[in-house]
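Protocol step 4 of 5: obtain the predicted structure for the target chain.
Materials: sequence only (see below). No template structures provided, no constraints applied. The aim of this step is simply to have a reference model before the mutagenesis design in step 5. Sequence pasted as it appears in the construct record:
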Amino acid sequence: MKEFRLKKREKNNSSDTAFHIINILLFGIFTIICIYPFYYLIINTISANDLSAGGEINLIPQGIHFENYINLLQIKGLGTAALVSFGKMIIGTTLTVIASAFLGFMFTQERMWKRRFWYRFVVITMYFNAGIIPLFITMKNLHLTNNFLVYVIPTIVQPFNIILVKAYVDSLPKALQEAAEMDGAGIFKIFCKIILPTCTPILATVAIFSAVNQWNSYQDTLLYITDQKLYSLQYLLYTYINQANSLAAMIKNSSGGAISAAVLATKQTGTSIRMTVSVIVVLPILCIYPMFQRYFVKGIMIGSVKG
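Step 4 output (C-alpha cells):
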C-alpha cells in the first residue's frame, strides 16, 4: 500500500512538472508574440532607413542611428503639443474618475430621486448620439471651440465607466454603509471615507481606460481646434505622418539626387517616420500601464460580477 502511494505521488509530481513546463512554454510563446510588434517598431526606428524601408530589418537592428528621433523632436510646436496632451490626459482622467466614482455610487442608492430613470438616461447615451454636426454646434454655442476645456468637459461622464463602478459598489457589503449611517455619516462622508478607499481596483481600471482614450484622441483637435497653440501631440503627429511620404521625397530630392549610401541610411522615409511616430505615441502608455496593471484584472473581475 505504501509503495502504491509513493508511485502515485511520483506520477502526480511528473504530471505537475509536465503541466508547468507546457504552461511556461505556451505563455512564453504568447509573451513573445505580444512583445515582438513593439520590438519590431523600435529596431526599425534605430536601423538604417533604407534597409527598414526595404523590409530587411526583422530581428537585429543594422546601421544603428538616432536621426529619426532627433528629426522628430525638431518639429515646430512639439513641446507645446506634448504639454497639451499631458495636461488633458491628467486633468481629464482625474475628473472622469471622480465623476464615475460618484455617479456609480449614487446610482446604487435607493434614496436618489428618480434613480432608475437617470441611470437609464445615462446608459442610453452609449448607443445613441446626435452626430458630429449637432455636437460641433453645441460646443460652439458653449464657447468651447478653440478652448482647452473642450478636451476635458465632454469626456467627464462616461457611461461605461459608470456601469463598471456601479457594479463594483453593488458587490460591496451593505453593512459598511449601514454602519457609517448609524454613526451619523452623511452621503458625502460615506462616499469619501468608505466607498473611495474600497474602490481602488475599479477606479484604477477606469483611470487606465480614460488615460488611454485621452492620450490617443486626436479627433477632438481636428473638430474643435484651429489655434495651433492648442494642438494636441497626437494631432500634430497625425498631420506630420500624413505628410510622411512627401516629406521624405522632399528631403531626398533636396540633395539633387546624389546621395551616398551612408547618407541614405539616415535620410527619413515614409516608413521611418510612421514607425518613429508610433513609438513616441505608444511609449507613455507603456510606462503608465504597469503602475495600474495589478489593479486592472481585479477591478474588471469584481466589477463585472455582482455578489
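Step 4 remarks: The two ends are 46 Å apart (CA to CA). Residues 255-265, 303-307 have pLDDT under 50 and may be disordered.
Proceed to step 5.
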